[in-house]
TrEMBL record, chain B:
Similarity section: Belongs to the binding-protein-dependent transport system permease family.
GO CC terms in record: plasma membrane
Primary localization: membrane
Keywords annotated in UniProt: Cell membrane, Membrane, Transmembrane, Transmembrane helix, Transport
Membrane-protein topology: Multi-pass membrane protein
Pfam families: BPD_transp_1
Name the record gives this protein: Carbohydrate ABC transporter membrane protein 2 (CUT1 family)
Length: 314, 286
């Protein structure tokens, strides 16, 4: 897991001006400046200035040794024309599409099952189990899975062999490598989406189900006409957070396949890493980073728009 | 008559139980799906423990022993990796707790010009993925003469927008009357923060600290970029490079290292699961 998945859009929706901005009482302004200094200086130095730095750098050629050379939009042209970079973005989008769909489907199914009739201790047991992979490092998980999915001695192929199947080229074929990357990623992260759904399901008032019961609604009808509309706010937030986090995938393919075979599991963040720290094309890396950030901002903006239109709030 | 007496309590007594959601599939089907999910989630972890504790001997058989663990210590500077990870994680966690408490308090309780605008800017930085800023941050760290040091991992990770947001929410939940009472008793704004609010905010601080632990302990991307020499590696990076050195032959040794690196995370999981859960989902569930 790369950092903490947070949902800036949802956080930003909590009212900022919750306290009236009154004129400062004596001493409070100075104290505030003192208390804010570490955070404000830190965020300025390590986030705000670097954003500007990335924007500027994207228009330069720089190998960290010689002086930076202004090249205009050349880096963006390279980005658009380089087959490797184009493939890595397509891989990322494909990965996001498949991994997020799977993650939402698995998490939703399990959340509905766990929220159904079940003793409380059993419910918290499942919650803990499904949460567990989130505390592991993506690097460790990928190491474990690289052995499990090994073509020659991996346990998964051995189990398939017991069923009479021939060994699958998990990490050595283009499709197999992507499948494993998706599975490993979803294995580690579905618990987060699951927790969001558990929270969303718990907030649905029981009497609606009781009413539908009296009306004789079938379970399927209840799920699609009551549960789904009422968890739609959670569904939207969970989907957007899953997309944002999946767009930044790096650790799993780096450890599992180093982006291969060929370019089949190379991702957008991986080409940022390779352009900068292996090929010393810092300007190009900055340009790729900016494009990725624009995509993430677009997704967040869509969340805002969609939540106003399609989501049913109680 | 008898049917009336048997159905009546069912309708009036526990109507909620009849109509609980999730009655999509019959009970057996639901149990089966959950058991499969349980097996798939825990299987790889149990398998890892089994392989780590049963390295292959000369005859190629798997025997129960700690040999893989001593191997991990012998083949890689495991103590060093542990120490680096502990140092970086602890300093980041403490640093985040401290700076987030200060800033969160200022945003929640103090009045100053531009407060809302500043808070909005800080919230907005949460939208910026780390991969976007990594190149300039790397240059900055290099310019500060800190490349290939542990400080390169610690310093940029201390200022936390999310932690500030969490602590602000926490301080907003503490009643105003406490501050007023302390002020009437003659406390300065700083004393109100230090002696009244900070001691009451330990649960919020715990969330920030546990979140920082989970994020920093498991971090791979930044250490990969910021550190060059193996004596500055943290555990995830060290373990991946260990696999590279050993090839695929010494599976037990690598997995023994993985097991060791999981122990602190497991301790935090056992004691900090609830705060971690609340912190991760903060601001997303309405």
């Amino acid at each position: 897991m790369m950092g903490v998945p947070v949902n800036p859009a949802a956080a930003a929706e909590t009212p900022v001006p919750s306290i009236p901005a009154a004129p400062g009482r004596r001493g409070e302004g100075k104290l505030a400046a003192l208390l804010l200094a570490p955070t404000v200086i830190g965020i300025t130095l390590f986030t705000l200035v670097p954003i500007i730095g990335s924007i500027v750098l994207a228009f330069f050629d720089w190998d960290i040794i010689s002086t930076p050379k202004f090249v205009g939009v050349k880096n963006f042209q390279t980005l658009a024309s380089s087959p490797t970079i184009r493939v890595s973005f397509l891989n990322t989008f494909g990965f996001v599409l498949i991994a997020v769909t799977l993650q939402i489907a698995v998490a939703m199914t399990l959340a509905v099952l766990v929220q159904s009739k079940m003793p409380g201790w059993l419910r918290s047991f499942f919650r803990s189990v499904f949460f567990f992979p989130l505390i592991l490092s993506a690097a460790s998980v990928s190491l474990i899975m690289s052995y499990l999915f090994n073509e020659d001695f991996g346990t998964i192929n051995k189990l398939l062999g017991l069923l009479g199947m021939s060994p699958v080229h998990w990490l050595t074929s283009t499709t197999g490598a992507m499948v494993v990357t998706v599975l490993v990623y979803v294995w580690q992260n579905f618990g987060f989406t699951f927790l969001l759904f558990i929270g969303g399901l718990a907030s649905i008032p029981q009497d609606i189900y009781e009413a539908s019961d009296i009306d004789g609604a079938s379970p399927m009808k209840r799920f699609w006409q009551i549960t789904m509309p009422l968890v739609s706010p959670t569904m939207l937030v969970a989907t957007v957070m899953a997309i944002i986090s999946a767009l930044q995938i790096f650790d799993q393919p780096y450890v599992l396949t180093k982006g291969g075979p060929g370019d089949s599991t190379r991702t957008a963040v991986m080409v940022i890493y390779q352009s900068a720290f292996q090929e010393l094309q810092f300007g190009l890396a900055a340009a790729i980073g900016l494009v990725l950030m624009l995509i993430i901002m677009l997704v967040t903006w869509l969340q805002f728009r969609l939540s106003k239109r399609f989501v049913f709030y109680m | 008559m008898s049917t009336a007496t048997t159905t009546a309590p069912d309708l009036t007594g526990t109507p909620a139980r009849r109509s609980r959601r999730g009655n999509l599939a019959p009970l057996a089907g639901r149990i089966l799906v959950l058991l499969v999910a349980l097996f798939l989630t825990l299987g790889p972890v149990v398998w890892t423990l089994w392989v780590a504790f049963t390295p292959t001997d000369e005859a190629g058989r798997r025997t129960l022993s700690f040999a893989a663990f001593s191997d991990a210590f012998a083949k890689v500077n495991m103590m060093r990796l542990f120490w680096n990870s502990i140092l970086v994680t602890a300093l980041c966690a403490v640093g985040q707790m401290f700076t987030a408490a200060l800033a969160g308090y200022a945003f929640a309780r103090l009045r100053f010009r531009g407060r809302n605008a500043l808070f909005a800017v800080i919230l907005a930085t949460m939208m910026v993925p780390m991969q976007v800023t990594i190149v300039p941050v790397f240059m900055l760290i290099r310019g500060m003469g800190l490349s290939d040091t542990l400080l390169a991992l610690i310093l940029p990770a201390i200022p936390t927008a999310f932690g500030t947001f969490l602590m602000r929410q926490y301080f907003l939940g503490i009643p105003d009357s406490l501050a007023e009472a302390a002020q009437i008793d003659g406390a300065t704004p700083w004393q109100v923060f230090w002696k009244v609010y900070l001691p009451l905010s330990t649960p919020g601080l715990a969330i920030v600290g546990i979140l920082a632990f989970n994020a920093i302990w498991n971090e791979f991307f930044r250490p990969l970029i910021m550190t060059i020499s193996s004596e500055n590696f943290t555990l995830p990076l060290g373990l991946v490079s260990l696999q590279g050195q050993l090839g695929t032959g010494s599976m037990s040794t690598v997995l023994a290292g993985v097991v060791l690196s999981m122990i602190p995370a497991l301790v935090v999981f056992v004691f900090g699961q609830r705060p971690l859960r609340e912190g991760l989902t903060a601001g997303s569930v309405k």
